[in-house]
């Protein structure tokens, strides 16, 4: 995984950059044929995706900017859940994501329209910027692992170096009040993904004089996602990633490089296909309306479902607060919800979307992710990679969660499953 996934990212890039998104293979599957194929891929990456100085400035400049904003901008301070590794201590998180997000939107618009920094440079240097992100992902993972060891903050170690490096050593690495895991989860991957899509759309406008419906669709899709992360940042504090997962290669590399540079395949494909063929991908009006509807319905369930769950947790934790960030959707907060009280002491929510299915936010995620692929048509598998990858990830998570909860709650979990029998879609599965 640690070597294979970066190689896969470069392979996808070569397919998009030089082959209109078609998955390429060796001409002949012999030793010489495979060697020739690998040499071709390496040559294309070295010559076309070399991490040059401009790419370093663009990516690392944004990383540094986002870290400074996370450290300095004002925002409400929220307590997280009690951490067993810290004997129940609750860490505090400065939730200034909204200030960062709004400031970034304004600054990026000013920089682009004044010509100081054209956002189209991101799309024009995509491969090189991705290379910088991959290098930085490895660097951050290594630094966090080594420094955690020096400071004696290892947690749940297996003794296997490669496994521990992948999963992480420290649960909540921090630089002062800056929580690195929280920052890497929300401030880098999704804004970078959004600006990749914006860059592709602006590149189309620069060359064609218009922005197509599919390009606008991807900008909207990624705007909704990053906006949800920032406006509901206080809800992320109670998530499994923040509360339990250690900050290793799996999280750090994935957030620094994996998310923004693989989830953007639809936007890059739309741009590269048009550049190669001169033809803009477009669809019929009914099909386009259907996909926008699918996206927005999926987003509504995603936003309100996550809000219901995490605000319920925050109420139990005593850290709930009302924020008027845009948009505040109806049914995002359930007053006096129904739930099952377990012998373990935890409460299992059985109201709202969580009374309809056990994983409604996963269903919503899949609705949005398939729409990202469908908007590009059927010319390439790559825009569908995110959906396929997500199906695998969520299938594993569901299996893990069901097993963990059954072990943790016992008969109470059986009662919960009787009350909420469906995992994704009522009366289907």
Write the SSE topology:
Blueprint: H1 4-18, H2 31-48, H3 53-72, E1 77-83, E2 89-94, H4 97-113, H5 120-124, H6 126-150, H7 161-167, E3 174-175, E4 178-179, H8 180-186, H9 189-208, H10 213-231, H11 233-236, H12 240-243, H13 249-262, H14 265-277, H15 285-317, E5 339-341, E6 347-349, H16 360-374, H17 385-409, H18 411-419
Antiparallel strand pairs: 1-2, 3-4, 5-6
Helix pairs in contact: 3-6, 4-10, 6-13, 8-13, 9-10, 9-13, 9-14, 10-14, 10-15, 15-16, 16-17, 17-18
Give the CA-based shape: globular
How would you classify the helix and strand content by structural class?
Answer: mainly alpha
Distance between the termini: 30 Å
User: Which stretches are poorly predicted, pLDDT < 50 over at least 5 residues?
Assistant: none
Number of DSSP strands?
A: 6
**Which strand order do you get reading across the main beta sheet?**
1-2
Write the element-wise H/E pattern from the N-terminal end onward. HHHEEHHHHEEHHHHHHHHEEHHH
What is the number of helices?
18
Determine Rg (CA atoms, Å).
22 Å
- The fraction of residues in strands falls at 5-15%
Level of helix content? 55-70%
Domains (count):
2
The average pLDDT is 93
Q: Major sheet, described briefly? A: 2 strands, antiparallel
EC number: 1.3.1.71
InterPro entries: ERG24_DHCR-like (IPR001171), Sterol_reductase_CS (IPR018083)
Family: Belongs to the ERG4/ERG24 family.
Organism: Absidia repens
What does this structure look like?
- Helices cover 63% and strands 5% of the residues.
- By secondary structure, it is mainly alpha-helical.
- The chain has two domains: 51-282, no CATH class; 287-429, no CATH class.
- The strands form three sheets. Strands 1-2 form a two-stranded antiparallel sheet. Strands 3-4 form a two-stranded antiparallel ribbon. Strands 5-6 form a two-stranded antiparallel ribbon.
- A hairpin with a 5-residue loop joins β1 (77-83) and β2 (89-94).
- α17 (385-409) packs across α18 (411-419).
- The protein is globular and about 60 Å long.
- The protein starts with a helix and ends in a 10-residue tail after the last helix.
């Amino acid at each position: 995984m640690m070597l294979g996934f970066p190689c896969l990212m470069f392979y996808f890039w070569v397919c998009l950059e030089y082959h209109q998104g078609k998955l390429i293979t060796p001409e002949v599957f012999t030793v010489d044929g495979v060697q020739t194929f690998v040499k071709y891929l390496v040559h294309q990456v070295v010559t076309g995706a070399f991490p040059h100085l401009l790419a370093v400035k663009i990516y690392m400049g944004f990383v540094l900017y986002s870290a400074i904003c996370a450290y300095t901008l004002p925002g409400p301070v929220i307590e997280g859940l009690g951490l067993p590794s810290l004997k129940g201590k609750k860490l505090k998180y400065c939730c200034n994501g909204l200030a960062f997000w709004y400031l970034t939107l304004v600054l990026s618009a000013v920089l682009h329209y004044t010509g100081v920094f054209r956002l189209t440079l991101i799309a024009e240097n995509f491969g090189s910027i991705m290379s910088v992100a991959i290098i930085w992902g490895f660097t951050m993972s290594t630094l966090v692992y080594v420094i955690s060891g020096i400071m004696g903050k290892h947690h749940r170690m297996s003794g296997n170096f490669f496994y521990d490096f992948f999963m992480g050593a420290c649960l909540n690495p921090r630089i002062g009040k800056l929580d690195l895991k929280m920052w890497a989860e929300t401030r880098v991957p999704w804004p970078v993904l959004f600006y990749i899509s914006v860059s592709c759309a602006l590149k189309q406008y620069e060359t064609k004089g218009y922005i197509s419906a599919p390009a606008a669709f991807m900008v909207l899709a990624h705007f909704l996602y990053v906006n949800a992360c920032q406006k509901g940042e206080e809800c992320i504090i109670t998530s499994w990633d923040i509360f339990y997962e250690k900050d290793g290669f799996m999280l750090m590399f994935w957030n620094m490089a994996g998310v923004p540079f693989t989830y953007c395949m639809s936007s890059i494909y739309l741009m590269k296909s048009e550049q190669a063929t001169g033809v803009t991908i477009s669809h019929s009006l009914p099909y386009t309306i259907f996909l926008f509807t699918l996206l927005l319905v999926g987003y509504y369930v995603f936003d309100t479902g996550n809000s219901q769950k995490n605000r319920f947790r925050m109420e139990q934790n005593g850290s709930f607060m009302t924020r008027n960030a845009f948009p505040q959707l109806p049914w995002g907060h359930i007053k006096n919800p129904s739930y099952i009280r377990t012998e373990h002491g935890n409460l299992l929510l059985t109201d709202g979307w969580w009374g309809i299915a056990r994983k409604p936010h996963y269903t919503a995620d899949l609705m949005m992710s398939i729409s990202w692929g469908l908007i590009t048509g059927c010319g390439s598998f790559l825009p569908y990679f995110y959906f396929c990858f997500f199906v695998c990830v969520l299938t594993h998570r569901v299996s893990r969660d069901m097993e963990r909860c059954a072990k943790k709650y016992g008969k109470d979990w059986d009662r919960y499953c009787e009350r909420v029998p469906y995992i994704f879609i009522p009366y289907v599965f």
